[in-house]
Specification:
The structure is a single chain. The chain is elongated. The chain folds into 2 domains: about 240 residues, Spore Coat Polysaccharide Biosynthesis Protein SpsA, Chain A (Alpha-Beta Complex); about 120 residues, 3 Solenoid (UDP N-Acetylglucosamine Acyltransferase, domain 1). The protein starts with a strand and ends in a 6-residue tail after the last strand. Helices cover about 20% and strands about 25% of the residues. By secondary structure, it is α/β, with parallel strands linked by helices. The strands form 7 sheets. It has a 7-stranded mixed beta sheet. A 6-stranded parallel beta sheet has the order 14-17-20-23-26-29, with no helix packed on it.
């Protein structure tokens, strides 16, 4: 095996608040009928990688249902293909993963048995269509121990990423993980090509220190050794691991900064087939994306509607992300909000506020999560009730 792709899909996604209460972050819908994990799986499929492992831990049920044995990505194979790696009990490596690097260490024997030349470690939390082959080729040609994809995020807060410094030849000279005072705007895209023997040896060396995430010890140690290189990527990339970045990623869709209609690189998914969307005679739809099965009879502006969403007559949806099978009843208004699947906004209810009321309006990074209202999975906003800006509404517990 030349390349083993390992997708890290086990994080709890706590910064996404109630959107990840009952699902793993990689299973979160994005752009209508896609899921976040569709992006690395699609990239693997189009890059010709057919040995793909998915490391799971938190809330795996929705994710496993979506993965469908790898069929949508042509990974349902007799030899190789998709393999799911959950945490387990039974030997000295048992127990919960303490982070991405710890998850790799706990699965080190399986990696060693597969004997790939390169381990390509990928995050399941970013939106990006990317051919991995140039990164892998650069890794082989340079003889690096680690090659990472990087990108510049001009004008954005990079303190929640791994910040990278490199010389003119592409050698990484500095790395800081989630620094308080970032030295630049170049960040890791969490696409890492490791030389397998180096990775396994270093994981064992670091295990006694208590492995956590890749940015805490693993990558800094390799950078210090002087044989880490970057491949700079100049294309759309967004980490959508927070409420505001998730909202802003959908804003990028409606404002055409992100285009998922690339016939040469279609995003593959296991979405359930639905009939075409329906727009009623009195409806108004502008700058919006409607997924299959949606039905709009009211007003929808600058929003993304998931499969099966219903917007009734005289209802208004603006600057919002509406997930699967949500119902917005007659006279209801939803503005600058995220509504999770199967939630309902009853007649005459109000959720959120108009974006024109948000100080500073809309920017490249969107609006702060303190201004984005979120209605959780299966939650109900009662008739003529109000859910204010930044509010979080969970469903009532079963009695």
């Amino acid at each position: 095996m030349d390349v083993l792709a390992v997708i890290m899909a086990g994080g709890a996604g706590g910064r996404l608040d109630l959107l990840t209460d009952e699902r793993a972050k990689p299973a979160l819908p994005f752009g209508g009928h896609y899921r976040l994990i569709d992006f690395p799986l699609t990239n693997c499929a189009h890059s010709g990688l057919d040995d793909v492992w998915v490391v799971e831990q938190y809330q795996p049920h929705h994710l496993n249902d979506h993965l469908s044995n790898g069929r949508p990505w042509d990974l349902d194979r007799t030899v190789g293909g998709l393999m799911i790696l959950p945490p387990w009990q039974g030997d000295e490596d048992e127990g919960w993963h303490e982070g991405n690097a710890d998850a790799l260490w706990r699965n080190r024997r399986y990696i060693a048995d597969a004997a790939p030349r390169t381990v390509l470690v990928l995050s399941a939390d970013q939106v990006c269509t990317l051919d991995y082959r140039p990164i892998l080729e650069a890794h082989d040609d340079s003889g690096a121990e680690l090659t990472m994809a990087t990108t510049r995020l001009e004008g954005e807060d990079v303190s929640r990423f791994g910040v990278v410094q490199a010389d003119g030849d592409g050698r990484v000279t500095g790395f800081a993980y989630k620094p308080d005072d970032p030295a630049g705007d170049t960040v890791s895209m969490e696409v890492f090509a490791y030389r397998t023997d180096v990775l396994l040896a270093l994981l064992d060396e670091l295990a006694d220190e208590g492995l956590e995430d890749w940015g805490d010890q693993l990558v800094p140690r390799l950078v210090d050794r002087g044989r880490t290189r970057e491949v700079r990527v100049e294309r759309y990339w967004r980490d959508v691991g927070t409420i505001d970045s998730y909202w802003a990623g959908h804003r990028d869709l409606v404002e055409h900064r992100l285009d998922l209609d690339d016939r040469s690189w279609p995003v593959l998914t296991a979405a359930t087939p639905r009939p075409p969307a329906i727009v009623g005679a009195g409806a108004v739809v502008a700058e919006s994306l409607l997924s299959p099965g949606a039905r709009v009879e009211g007003r929808v502006v600058r929003s993304v509607l998931g499969p099966g969403v219903r917007v009734a007559p005289d209802a208004v949806v603006e600057d919002s992300v509406i997930l699967d099978d949500v119902v917005v009843e007659a006279g209801a208004e939803v503005r600058t909000a995220i509504l999770d699947a199967r939630s309902r906004v009853a007649e005459g209810a109000r959720v959120g506020e108009a974006i024109s009321s948000v100080p500073g309006g809309s920017t490249r990074s969107g609006v702060s999560e303190e201004r984005i209202a979120v209605v959780g999975l299966d939650a109900v906003v009662e008739a003529r009730a109000s859910v204010g800006p930044g509010a979080r509404l969970r469903r009532k517990p079963d009695r």
